[in-house]
Specification:
Layout (H helix, E strand, L loop, with lengths): L10 E9 L4 H9 L4 E6 L4 E8 L2 H12 L4 E11 L4 E2 L3 E2 L3
Antiparallel strand pairs: 1-3, 1-4, 2-3, 5-6
Length: 97
């Protein structure tokens, strides 16, 4: 994980990044510099499986949009998202948003 503490993570997103073949090295370099983004797998068809960890769903979507704007990214397909409720009540414990 890239410098994101467990206490700061409320949302985890799994995504597939489709890259332009000629730019795949630059895309991977740019992704590796983004806080909260981890690259897990690259295949021979220039696709990456990544996870995005962020404090809120809004931050996760914003990070996804930033990835989409990287030169050489054709498409980002979010395939999984889970967000923990960050508001805690005395009676119920953690709540879902």
């Amino acid at each position: 994980m890239n410098n994101v503490s467990e206490a700061d993570v409320g949302c985890i997103v799994g995504a597939v990044v489709h890259m332009v073949p000629d730019n795949h090295g630059l895309v991977k370099e740019q992704l590796s510099m983004l806080e909260g983004v981890d690259i897990h797998v690259e295949d021979e068809r220039f696709r990456l499986v990544i996870t995005i960890e962020a404090a809120t769903s809004r931050a996760a979507v914003s990070l996804t949009e930033s990835i989409q704007d990287i030169n050489g990214v054709m498409h980002v397909a979010m395939v999984y998202q889970h967000c923990e409720g960050l508001n805690k009540t005395q009676e119920e414990g953690w709540t879902w948003r």
